[in-house]
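Chapter review. Work through the record for CoA transferase before attempting the end-of-chapter questions.
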Amino acid sequence: MTGPLAGLKIIEMAGLGPGPFAAMMLADHGAEVVRVERAGMIGVPNDPLLRNRKSISLNLKREECREVVRRLAGTANGLVEGYRPGVMERLGLGPEDLLKANDKLVYGRVTGWGQSGPLAKEAGHDINYIAISGLLHGIGPKERPIAPVNYLGDYAGGGMMLAFGMVSALLAVQRGGEGQVIDAAMSDGAALTGALTYGMRAAGLWRDEREANLLDGGEPIYGIYRCLDGKFVAVGAIEPQFQAALYKGLALAPGADREQIATVFKSRTRDAWAAHFIGTDACVAPVLDLGEAPVHPHNIARRTFVDIEGVFQPSPAPRYSDSPLARPEPPRREGADGETILEGLGYGPEEIRAILKGD
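Structure tokens for CoA transferase:
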């Protein structure tokens, strides 16, 4: 692997959502990630979240398979898991057990509610975690909040925070520190992404109402407008000079209201408006769907997306000037690397056959 994390080894206890996202980030940036899977897991064919991994399938109900995880953790720099609190402890694979054998291990845990607190053992999903962060209240039209796609809690507040925490703790170990446990709660991480909004509210610059603020569509110069073809453009002309460019491009007087702006945008197609505003600093962009985004000229020029075995997916990000990232490898078949991984741990042929048997 190439990238700034090359040389690090991470064990990923297979799960869904934020855990795989964090492991993808670490693998994309050069870490060797071994994914410990179990037969019959729910999955998406060629899931981008599972790229750049090695895979071993283990039945963790069996002690000899749990011992494999202990050996893997004993040779690793980090481990990530996204089970509900207490699951890893019941398997004898909790942080107390694994750090006892490897005191430099960074043990990353991502859950919805965190490892402690009144809700820690409750079930939930992204929408529940962002609900108590205060952020869900502000998403949607005036009438009611809406259910957003699970980017905010699962991936920004969960997976990305866990990846950042892992790299931070791994850096501390390289500077002479000890291994430690990372408690990444999606409810905490989601709240953190709203830091600016909380600051604006404290300063009297944000109201607890939807479509009543500068950045939630409350101002006509920041919002989404329908075009002649039924598609949309996004407008973000916050600063005065950008507003001036917007009004000029629409042939409207400065300070025109939302209705006036909407009427003009309905006179042309989305792509016609996008072309019209190129180079004007009016902060107008076409709202693209998932099929259109990979073939937008800017994304092509930046190689923002990559085709991996027929699946268009986001390329690794961010970019580095001196540590180029490799083209992602497609997801491995479940358990594809089991024999090689076990051989590397010192297991013999008969032991390997016993460990990898299907029961």
